[in-house]
Design goal:
Radius of gyration: 17 Å
Distance between the termini: 39 Å
CATH class: Alpha Beta
Order of helices and strands: HEHEEHHEEHEEH
Strand content: 15-25%
CATH architecture: Roll
CATH superfamily: CBS-domain
Shape: globular
Strand order of the largest sheet: 1-2-3-4
Length: about 140
């Protein structure tokens, strides 16, 4: 295994069993699948391409908060369309930066046009988090000075 600070996104998704759903599926179906795999996000694939991502946050904001019926609501109306992605060869720290910059907790991973997996905040380990926090402290000091 690589040193933690130099892990790539490819290292993180290497053994991942991709969870995905079609855009016509119901929110209830998506949530049931997410619960069965103990994950907080599912990729939405249409015609072999990434159409969106559906997360617990989407469930709360776009379904529960609007009192929609999850069994009757299509995932295509509740998902985040055209999500921010990260390339497979990016390093873990770059993924963390992208999550922070775009205020997201999950990033689909792309190998060109092929979907390679998904990374989430919980995929990162202590050393990467420490390095990210150190970067943020330096940025804060530069802005203060």
């Amino acid at each position: 295994m690589r040193a933690m600070a130099s892990r790539t996104v490819k290292d993180i998704v290497a053994d991942q069993d991709l969870l995905w759903i079609g855009p016509e599926a119901s929110v209830l179906d998506a949530v049931t699948r997410m619960d069965g795999r103990n994950v907080a996000a599912v990729l939405v694939i249409e015609n072999g391409a990434l159409a969106g991502i559906f997360t617990e946050r989407d469930l709360l904001k776009r379904v529960v908060a609007k009192a929609l019926d999850p069994a009757r609501t299509r995932i295509s109306t509740a998902m985040t369309a055209s999500p921010v992605t990260i390339p497979l060869d990016a390093n873990a720290l770059s993924a963390m930066r992208a999550m922070c910059r775009h205020s997201v907790r999950h990033l689909p991973v792309m190998d060109g046009t092929r979907i390679a997996g998904i990374v989430s905040l919980r995929d990162f380990v202590g050393r990467e988090i420490s390095e990210f926090e150190r970067e943020r402290e330096i940025q804060d000091q530069l802005w203060e000075g």
